[in-house]
Amino acid sequence: MALGGLGSAADPLALAGTVTQMAEFIAPAQWQAIELVSDLHLCESTPRTFEAFAAYLAGTDADAVFILGDLFEVWVGDDQCTRPFERAIADTLKAHTQRRWLGFMHGNRDFLAGRAFAQAAGLHLLADPTCLSAFGARWLLTHGDALCLKDTAYQRFRAQVRSARWQEDFLSRPFDERWSIASGIRSQSRARKSAAPDPQLWADVDRDAGVSWLAQARASTLIHGHTHRPGDEVWGEGRSRSVLSDWDLDHAPCRAEVLRLDVHGLSRRAPSFALAGSTGLPAEEA
Ligand code: LP5
Ligand code: MN
After folding, report:
1. 179-215 pLDDT, tens digit each
2. ω into residue 12 within 30 of 0, thus cis?
3. Cβ < 6 Å from ligand 1: which residues?
4. Do residues 55 and 272 make contact, with C-beta atoms less than 8 angstroms apart?
5. % helix / strand / coil in the chain, to the nearest 5?
6. Distance 29 CA to ligand 2 centre (A)
7. SS3 for 16-63, per residue?
8. Ligand 1 atom index nearest CA of 108
């Protein structure tokens, strides 16, 4: 399956970073707190990360948890949900939906998660980007990859694999073939990153495009994941961005962080119950 074989004549980069329709989500008035996470990259080889996430979901008092992409390390179609590990994740999520609202936005690893998976896991699918109106303010939520405009190779790749035509063709292939293609792309992506002298130069959200999205959404704070470089940055004129951390409880340094929104604004918390008992090192190194 050749990338490019399904391409259109138009340059896909011409549309990169543009939003035709800004989705909006208005939080119910009775909600007191919303928490946001991203980049858990769950897979069979990270069982402690899944356990920590399950512990976090069981312990949080937030009314809603928004997962802003890359819940999974890789997702090649909703039939992946028949495997025991993914089934367990879907069942865990579904069980928590009795007590809180769970939202899910696609990331670059799990953009093929569809309605069947969302239904099995009780997740509400969120468009990327979505403007969240809550606690008297507007927050613009995105996974983040769509705004990494300097990464032109990725933006071309993204434009192709997000097209309905490409997805239809890809999803019509047998599971093992899809899995093998995705593994190949993962290897290429890893190799590309490790060969790059400074990914910060090209693998970060474009500030001008971020500001323009914020203006379009009439929001002041952009919240995103994807870069795995958590932090808060002032962008001027009352605008800022907050970046979510990734989660990894299986490899050192262990990390897991939650952004919490409430009437006081935005705060960061380590879900301490999730890290409890952890020395900060994987079991064999502890
Ligand atoms: O994910 P990460 O953090 O390593 O890097 C991302 C970008 N990479 C990706 C690819 C993902 O890692 C793997 C996607 C799995 C999706 C599964 C669904 C099935 C898809 C099958 C696709 C054919 O998103 C990386 C960015 C980085 O973030 C920082 O922003 O730089 O982008 C890339 O590395 C993409 C490459 O630069 C684009 C070139 C791909 C060329 C593929 C050619 C062969 C394809 C033939 C097979 C059909
Ligand atoms: Mn990502």
Report:
1. 999 999 999 988 888 887 777 777 899 999 999 999 9
2. no
3. 1, 3, 74, 76, 108-109, 112, 145, 148, 151, 153-154, 157, 161, 181-182, 185-186, 188-190, 192-193, 203
4. no
5. 35, 20, 40
6. 31
7. CCCCCCCEEEECCCCCCCEEEECCCCECCCCHHHHHHHHHHHHHCCCC
8. 24
CA-CA distance, 178 to 158, in Å (whole number)? Answer: 17
The CA-based angle 194-199-204, given to 5 degrees, is 140
What is the three-state SS of 74-104? CCCCHHHHHCHHHHHHHHHHHHHCCCCEEEE
Helices of type H across 196-261: 207-217
Q: Tell me the C-alpha distance between 122 and 80, whole Å.
A: 16
pTM: 0.93
CATH superfamily of 21-149+199-285: Metallo-dependent phosphatases (3.60.21.10)
Contact 133, 25 (CB under 8 A): yes
Q: Which two tokens stand for residue 179?
A: 């899995």
Pairing outcome for strands 137-142 and 221-224: parallel
29-31-32 Cα angle (round to 5):
120
CA 259 to chain centre: 13
Confidence band, pLDDT 50/70/90 cuts, at residue 3: low
Per-domain residue ranges of the chain: 21-149+199-285
Residue 169 token pair: 């063709």
- Match 């865990």 to its residue by tokens: 92
